[in-house]
Predict the structure of Plasmid replication initiator protein.
Amino acid sequence: MTPEYTPADRRAALDRAARLRQLTEADRDAIRLAQDPKFPRWLEQITATGGCSHPIHLSGSTTTLDASTGEIIRHYDTRDEPGERLLVRCRNRRVTVCPACSRLHAGDTYHLVRAGLLGGKNVPGTIRNRPRLFITLTAPSFGPVHRAGDRCRPRRDGGTCEHGRPLGCGAIHASDAPVVGQPLCPDCYDYTSHVLWHAHASKLWDRFVIDVRRRLASSVGLVQSRFALHARLSFARVAEYQKRAAVHVHAVVRLDGPTGPDDEPPAWGTPDLLIDAVRASARRVLVHTPYSLAVGELALRWGAQVDARPLHANGDGPDDDAVAAYVAKYVTKGASETGAGTDHPLTTRDDIESVPVNAHVRTLMRTCWRLGKLPEYEPLHLRTWTHTLGYRGHILTKSRAYSTTYAALRADRAAHRANGEQLGEGTVTEATWRYIGSGYTPGAAQLAAGIAEDLAQNREFAREAKHEQWWGE
Ligand SMILES: [Zn+2]
Ligand SMILES: [Zn+2]
Ligand SMILES: [Zn+2]
């Protein structure tokens, strides 16, 4: 029997075809996915990654056996999964790369920093009575840059530099004005020192910590080598790019007894003594660059702006929370988000000319590339770290005894997810896994983004509910 189409049917069919043509590639791909019989399980997997936008695809199996009888207690195999694969989180800390994982990472950082301030996560609550400081160390000046807020750089006598550019500015810039952080004269600006300072910033921090210990010891008449028998200095620090694309450092510093968080510090260990030591060390420590025929030998120090404030235990709880939140915020920022560099390494000199950064940052990148070819700077790997402007430290660094670790927090979460299921004693686990790819097709990416948004919104609601519960609003 031949189907009979009315003119109306025909019009509808044409409309449908036209509408399908108008769909984006991602929409068509999403429709294709939704027709897969394993689609529900696939959605479950994306939800389990928290809507990660660039998941890792794994193939393999895990078998748990009873050690004595060899009986299989549990078996999981990706052969039964959609596409015969399991999706796991990319765990990228940068919000520009993966919003879902960066949120999780920020949460972990918050708990990690907070535990070192207030206790929790196996850290005793007594640490809140220890001398604890929040400190900020900056890079020195490499040349005047435009700044926001008050009048930029007023100069009564005017005057120009040797390149004919004005030495002052006098304008009032909004904080988001593109000119803020840019040098008044790029030719006067010391790009070489800026890049070399970045390359030595982690070493400068290490020297700083050693010097604070040394200073504390000598201020109470201890031989330096005996400091560790009396007290222990713990810290968590985070690096942040300023507007002028120079890294500065925020850190929580805490003084414990010799064995760490469980141990009371000696009576002489007061916040004032700690502040004095921090200020003096920040002024004093320096690192020399390797000698170079082109550059000479530079002595690198911290900038003159040193901020060190005590965190008080009494009734100042929200302060500690704010500090932890503040630090957590910084670890999710990629170099690209702060405008200082890019999130991905640059592999050729030409890459530098095409990345979307301002003129100041581009000159810093060019400087990394140029200095990177000098044999005396080879150990600094400046070309490899062109995208971070020579800085190659981690964004968050902490001493061993500060608090918990990212690994412990992740293990906690995994145990929580396993819903208390205990498979410890008397069992053996055999696992074989391999990496088979990463990322999503366009349609899948769209679905994952939707799931990430839903999860974030649910968390937001949960937070509001909790807020009401606490504050009765
Ligand atoms: Zn991710
Ligand atoms: Zn200005
Ligand atoms: Zn100049």
Q: What stands out?
A: Residues 454 and 460 are 10 Å apart (CA to CA). Residues 24-94+420-471 form one domain.
